Give the backbone structure.
Amino acid sequence: MIKEIPLTPVKTLIKTINLTGVREDIFKKIDINILLERTKNRLKNTSNESLGKIQMLHTSCKDNMLTIYDDWICKKKIIDPRTFGIIIDRFVKLMYQTEQINEITDTDVISIINTSNVVTYEEQTKNAKTKEIIDQLIYNLSQSIVAYKKTNNPYATLTELIAESYFLTIMDMQYKQNQFSDSEYLEKLKASKSELRTIFIKHPDIAWLTNVLSFTSYMYLVSTDNKFTCDDIISCDYSLTYDTPIEKDCEISGHISGEIDFQSQSEILDLKISKSNFTMDHIMQVALYYMLSSNKENIKTLTLYNPLLNQSLIISPNDIFKVNNIGEIINITATKYLEKKL
């Protein structure tokens, strides 16, 4: 029976918690409006002039952005919503890391990309043909980023840079979902830049939306004093002993894993691109990241940020949990699950 419990990765654990009805036992109900008010108060007194400008631009364009996103991404799926979110996510991480280096070189950029989880995973597959293509894509992107940093008008070429980094999105989808066959994967990588560039040319609204969301997300990250790392892997080995009327003194062990978008010494931040408000599942996800973080004792703030709605949700871990141990959550989840099955 216990074998039917899907415990990995983190998002699957969240589904299990919801399925078993254990959520109310663990996570306090939180008033989203109160949390958004906290965010507004935090940003209200910022002295960063450029942040103020981009927030004003973003707010004034909000309805237009939602219309574009709903029409072209959600309904017509010119780019499906999940892929679109990964495009923003991957580019913002790259932009944030490269912007931290003043006199950046192509070697610096190559090092940043090569240490990302998607490239590290690909290195482990040791497919020579794929590696050759990826190495060339990384080299091309590194040259473009160095040129981008040196230009007098960098934002004019931001969309082109996003298209050139699209191969990182394809690698992400393969790394996390094994989405393509080997031959499809190679072809998608080869055609990555031209594919997204063609979409941007045919649909300039999508290009504009991608550009604005990337830039505002970056500006949000630098609006704090935190220095974030990207894509920190979090994990937990678990071991359960359980008794049921059918099975006595049984044991099962396994592994839960996830990937934190941005983590500093004191904050975990998760980037969401969605036309919907934050949900309890989103809060649970960032809460589980906190519980599995090796830096847990120093984390004071958990943040969700959605640039499409210009919303962030900033909370203390203490505001969320009645239970703050991942092992207890797994145990409670398993118990509830078995009770329902019986």
In short: The mean pLDDT is 83. The first strand starts at residue 229 and ends at 242. The chain has 16 helices and five strands.
